[in-house]
Design brief:
With 148 residues, this protein is of the alpha+beta class. It contains 4 helices and 5 strands. It is globular.
Length: 148
């Protein structure tokens, strides 16, 4: 499949999309998140359903998703409210076609229209994910993680 031959539609997520979102995620992570993920996406949906959550469709098939929320300014030392990308994924057979970038762009546009900056936590040694978000215009912030 090529990007030019594939018409991608980005739209707001609805409750009816939850099952397919779980299926796309399962393709990506297999059984490692399957026990908790079905509860997590549903919980996220009911708590944050008014937030800028989107799906990507090709034809009538959901092939990608992005879930996030907008949090108050006192969390994580931020001076003002900020949006956070919590989860996203694109089905393996639709990767490297720009769909992930379109989902991030839709999420950022919706958040920026509300006057909030978008943030995401990424494992520092996940070079592929770091490269992806840098290509979307993100830069490293000042939050540092400590573990014991």
């Amino acid at each position: 499949m090529s990007t030019s031959a594939t018409k991608v539609k980005i739209r707001k997520m609805t409750e009816a999309d939850l099952q397919r979102v779980r299926e796309v995620d399962h393709k990506l992570v297999g059984p490692y998140r399957s026990v908790s993920w079905p509860l997590r996406v549903d919980a996220h949906w009911w708590v944050y359903r008014g937030m800028p959550n989107f799906v990507a469709e090709v034809g009538n098939e959901i092939v990608g998703f992005i879930l996030g929320d907008i949090r108050g300014g006192t969390q994580y030392g931020a001076e003002q409210a900020g949006a956070w990308i919590d989860m996203m994924g694109v089905a393996p057979e639709y990767q490297n076609m720009g769909i992930g970038r379109e989902l991030v762009d839709a999420f950022c546009k919706a958040c920026h229209s509300q006057g909030v900056k978008v943030r995401i936590f990424v494992v520092g040694d996940d070079k592929r994910l770091v490269k992806f978000f840098e290509s979307c215009g993100f830069s490293q912030g000042n939050l540092v993680s400590y573990e014991k």
